[in-house]
């Protein structure tokens, strides 16, 4: 039996794009694809809707990540200042 493909830091297979987050998949599918459909292929409107939905989701995800990083750095700086002010005994 061969070894499985090596995994990256997040457990995703190296060389492949990571799977989309389930919440994004569900939300965009619910928003853009009707529950009952006859054609197995996406219509142009559905495809455009999905593209926009995914783009918005990823944009918000990136913005939130940046904001959380910024807040974390501010907290670390505040903690350092507090420790310097009280840590000289």
UniProtKB/TrEMBL annotation:
Q: Which family does it belong to?
A: Belongs to the small Tim family.
Entry-linked InterPro entries:
Tim10-like, Tim10-like_dom_sf
| Keyword hit for S-adenosyl-L-methionine | no
From what superkingdom does this record's organism come? Eukaryota
The protein, known as: Mitochondrial import inner membrane translocase subunit
Localization (cell): Mitochondrion inner membrane
Q: Which keywords label this protein? A: Chaperone, Disulfide bond, Membrane, Metal-binding, Mitochondrion, Mitochondrion inner membrane, Protein transport, Translocation, Transport, Zinc
Domains as described in the record = The twin CX3C motif contains 4 conserved Cys residues that form 2 disulfide bonds in the mitochondrial intermembrane space.
Broad class of where this protein is predominantly found: mitochondrion
Keyword check for Zinc: yes
Biological source species: Anser cygnoides (Swan goose)
Q: How does it sit in the membrane?
A: Peripheral membrane protein
- Gene Ontology MF: a single term: metal ion binding
**TM helices/strands, residue ranges:** none
User: An example Gene Ontology cellular component term from the record?
Assistant: mitochondrial inner membrane
Q: What lineage is on file? A: Eukaryota, Metazoa, Chordata, Craniata, Vertebrata
The GO annotation for biological process reads:
protein insertion into mitochondrial inner membrane; protein transport
- Pfam name, any one: zf-Tim10_DDP
Q: What does this protein do?
A: Mitochondrial intermembrane chaperone that participates in the import and insertion of multi-pass transmembrane proteins into the mitochondrial inner membrane. May also be required for the transfer of beta-barrel precursors from the TOM complex to the sorting and assembly machinery (SAM complex) of the outer membrane. Acts as a chaperone-like protein that protects the hydrophobic precursors from aggregation and guide them through the mitochondrial intermembrane space. Mitochondrial intermembrane chaperone that participates in the import and insertion of some multi-pass transmembrane proteins into the mitochondrial inner membrane. Also required for the transfer of beta-barrel precursors from the TOM complex to the sorting and assembly machinery (SAM complex) of the outer membrane. Acts as a chaperone-like protein that protects the hydrophobic precursors from aggregation and guide them through the mitochondrial intermembrane space.
The UniProt annotation puts the region (Disordered) at 1-23
Self-association state and partner proteins as the record states:
Heterohexamer.
Q: In what residue span(s) does the Tim10-like domain sit?
A: 23-70
